Amino acid sequence: MAIETINPATGETLKSFEPMTDRQVAQQLSRAATGFEELRRSSYQQRSQWLRAAADILDAETDSVARMMTTEMGKTLVAARAEVGKCAAACRFYAEHGAAFLADEPADAPAVGARRAYARYEPLGPVLAIMPWNFPLWQAMRFAAPALMAGNPGLLKHASNVPQTALYLADLFARAGFPDGAFSTLLIGSDAVPRVLRDDRVRAATLTGSEAAGRAVAAIAGEQLKKTVLELGGSDPFVVMPSADIAAAAAAATTSRCLNNGQSCISAKRFLVHREVYDEFTDAFVAAMAAQVLDDPMAETSDVGPLATASGRDEVEEQVRDAVLHGARVRCGGDRPNRPGWWYPPTVVTDLTPQMRMWSEEVFGPVAGVFQVDSYADAVALANDTPFGLGANAWTADPAEQESFVQDLAAGLVFINGIVTSHPQLPFGGIKNSGYGRELSAHGIREFCNLKTVWMA
């Protein structure tokens, strides 16, 4: 895939980049290895100052960075500004809490015959981050901020359709004061990733992307005995029970499904509604989805912009077409607008059956599948009937039912009466084919650390 910026709203190629040569990549790896020596010896106080400086730069450049992201992958400008703010907040979060998260952990020294015994967290070294285009700044930042605070240099292999955002990140951390080599962007294709991952200077890897990409990276990392964290997407259920606030649930369902133009791994995609409130919820949901404004993502009034790539738009269209051919009903949307760019409208599909692709596949666009369930047990069974296990939503006012959903939904994140989202304060990650390991919170910053046991006589 070419490394280039193509405006999804128009299909126009705006800027192209030559992939790095093997020599250039080797130079970046050497910079990272050298930078690691300086970064790991810096104090937590110094690293926190650099992170705060990065946050200040992001705040000052919010509008220009947001416009760059919107131009590269089509998210609305309103959403892009919010993403920049979230990245600044993550930098400040780890600047404030990173030292405490990585503080030495005392052990019972007398019990082990020591004068002093403790565990300490130490950085592993350069970490390769293979990131997707859907949240081009946030996906990279939720790795970069904790990794840098822990003392690990970052090597970013970003998606090929967001090269300007990728280059901006390297420039951001350099201007914030981090040592040379602390963060580098590798403008390379996915075919070059195996060689980089096998390089001895790379000590670990993290990937957010497809299941196939995760398996490939995990296989190489396993062969090389290198730590990995994988976030591989999901097909998140959104369960609505009779006691739920239906109006609030329908509004939240619309927000979740249309978030980032429907291109979010943790957006609700399968809406499992109890038969007692099925008609009420579905009618409200369809009305709200149909009212979403599909227009120029730079416009402040737009709710939904284009999909990021032509192939992504075509895939979504084909999944809906397949459902219709097998008897599904399109309640709103479903027709591609006749305009330049890669547009697809907010769409609701009902009467789904196991023969349809939408029954089991993740739809990466503003398309919702609504399913009717007869009981709590049926809802849980259908919610868990997926190879993925990233996020899950449940809407119910019954306290006992809320606790049951927390226990019974097979996912890395369960949100009750709210949509799944990511916060620096909470661990983020999935189970089953959604991957393993955690980002964010104290758990995320410790993923790429050596937990060293220290015993002193």
UniProtKB/TrEMBL annotation:
Keywords: NADP, Oxidoreductase. InterPro entries: Ald_DH/histidinol_DH (IPR016161), Ald_DH_C (IPR016163), Ald_DH_N (IPR016162), Aldehyde_DH_dom (IPR015590), ALDH_GabD1-like (IPR044148), GABD/Sad-like (IPR047110). GO terms for molecular function: aldehyde dehydrogenase [NAD(P)+] activity; succinate-semialdehyde dehydrogenase (NAD+) activity. CDD domains: ALDH_SSADH1_GabD1. Residues 3-454 form the Aldehyde dehydrogenase domain. Pfam families: Aldedh. Signal peptide: none annotated. Belongs to the aldehyde dehydrogenase family. NCBIfam families: PRK09406.1. This is NADP-dependent succinic semialdehyde dehydrogenase.
